[in-house]
Write a structure and sequence with these properties.
376 residues, alpha/beta, TIM Barrel, 9-stranded mixed sheet, 4-stranded antiparallel sheet, 14 helices, 42% helix
């Protein structure tokens, strides 16, 4: 029988697996609901910014997550990062700032809270000189030497480290409106901005990869170009402004024998041929309820090149469907995206939200085991 990590890596390498592997992204509120459901009491005082899910933060220490995943037979990918050692991240007027200067405010929504960005550090500048004068994050301000010990806390799970996201960080620095119009209104400014972000990413990730001593399995070279239907921006802007710098991130990962995990919410279908050509290894998520996806065709067209990660609909099925709806969807996805028995990692399209019941989550992961044991 394969270990959790072996199963994940075999699926990504398009090799035979003993069962379709699974991953989980979930909000802190959902994590706590599941800990209570399974009476998991560990990890309440050991949460750290250096270990998380690929989709966000942990509500407790990683030992609680591992116990939960063991109970649900979730293989999982754990995200790690080096501790930040620079100037203290400040909180002022209820706004939490990051080392990039992004400012976030907690917003309640009844069942929990989320962080909404309210400060965009570069939304008021207009010149290349102002970009040159900006105090950019310094890759020196991280303790990369801590990474091997952090990884050792994660048990025998697959490990991801890094987040190279140019279009996304353009938005975080400038806001969505300027993110979309900058390439049209000031292409020279945009190219300088993207190059500066990319240079920081490349140096940061190079140091992570070298310090981890071969223990990193994945890194994210990623972005959010998809909307509910089609792309947020014209694909020609991807080609002109972002593609070459994203390629640097992909090439750096592969030079260190690290697989590239590409996250792209929404209807990103127009980008998939380019992403495959550029060398991504994993595409997440397959958000097939956005647009009109033919999953069998997707598998036939790209299943020999990439692994598909997460596709269970969390706009409709998981929050509003019944456990039987979830079971039917898992079966359908397994028979399309996992038609050849590999190249598919089951999971929700994004973080499980607090309006998703424990029964539907149990149906998601339990159906995979039951369905595959029947096939075997």
């Amino acid at each position: 029988m394969m270990t959790f990590k072996e199963r994940i890596l075999a699926a990504v390498n398009l090799q035979p697996v003993d069962r379709i592997p699974a991953d989980m992204w979930a909000t802190p509120e959902v994590q706590e609901m599941l800990y209570e459901h399974f009476d998991i009491n560990v990890g309440k005082n050991t949460q750290t910014d250096s270990i998380g899910l690929l989709g966000g933060h942990l509500s407790r220490g990683v030992e609680a997550l591992i116990e939960l995943w063991d109970k649900l037979a979730i293989d999982g990918i754990i995200d790690i990062r080096p501790p930040y050692m620079g100037n203290k991240r400040i909180k002022k007027d209820g706004i939490q700032y990051t080392e990039w200067g992004f400012g976030y405010k907690e917003v309640g929504y009844g069942r929990g809270v989320y962080l909404e960005q309210v400060v965009f550090q570069l939304d008021g500048i207009t010149t290349i000189q102002e970009l040159e004068d900006f105090q950019w994050p310094n890759p020196d301000n991280y303790d990369y030497s801590a990474l091997p010990a952090i990884i050792d806390k994660c048990g025998e799970r697959a490990i991801s480290c890094g987040y190279h996201a140019l279009f996304t960080f353009h938005q975080y620095l400038r806001g969505l409106e300027l993110n979309l119009v900058d390439p049209m209104m000031d292409p020279d400014f945009t190219k300088v901005l993207i190059k500066k972000i990319s240079d920081i990413f490349i140096e940061y990730h190079r140091r992570c990869f070298e310090a981890a001593q071969g223990k990193i399995d994945f890194t994210q070279v990623t972005d959010d170009w998809g909307s509910q239907n089609g792309l947020l921006s014209d694909i020609s802007f991807f080609d002109e402004f972002y593609r070459s710098e994203m390629q640097r991130g992909i090439d750096l990962a592969h030079a260190h024998n690290i697989k590239v995990f590409h996250h792209n919410d929404g209807d990103c279908r127009p980008l998939i041929p380019r992403l495959v050509e550029m060398g991504i290894d994993v595409l997440n998520p397959i958000q097939w309820s956005c647009g009109n996806w033919d999953l069998a065709e997707l598998k036939e067209k790209y299943g020999q090149d990439i692994c598909f990660h997460s596709a269970v609909d969390n706009q409709h099925t998981l929050p509003f469907g019944t456990p039987e709806d979830v079971r039917k969807e898992v079966k359908m996805l397994t028979e399309t995206l996992g038609a050849d028995g590999t190249g598919f990692i089951l999971g929700p399209c994004h973080n499980l939200q607090s309006n998703t019941s424990a029964e539907n989550i149990l149906a998601l992961y339990g159906t995979r085991r039951n369905h595959l044991s029947q096939r075997a």
